[in-house]
Amino acid sequence: MAYVTPLNTKKIKELSSKLTERFGVTFSKDYLWYVHTKKKDIYLLSKKAKEISLDSLRVNNLGLYVANLDNHDIIRLSIEGSQLLGPKATKSVIELDKNQLRTWLRGEDMPYEYENGYVIIKSGKDFCGCGRIKDNILLNFVPKGRRIRSRD
Fold it and tell me: Within 24-55, where are the H helices?
């Protein structure tokens, strides 16, 4: 049973609209969109991949994990998704200084005044992931395996 299914044009337009509304940007139309139906993870794959026959291969996953749909179908970007969209985003991008970024990369929540909702985290020229502002607290979504462990 396949858990990863391609998205239809209507769903892609809906998700693109949500991305534009929240971050002021859309993904290029040069991608195929897939969703993991159990986890609600969104993957992008180059359209050139259609030229490859996958029938004789064991494939665990297709494409690059770029986002997740929460329980209300609101898009939360992955670290790679923020790096892909961040440079073009015109809204909901917050800048952290080096000390704030270290706290963020340790997986800690921190105070930050901004409107509620998902935001792209930026420090200098780097896009570091996606967080959520709730009641002036920046909630952290850095996966445990990607966090900084040192306390210096």
Answer: none
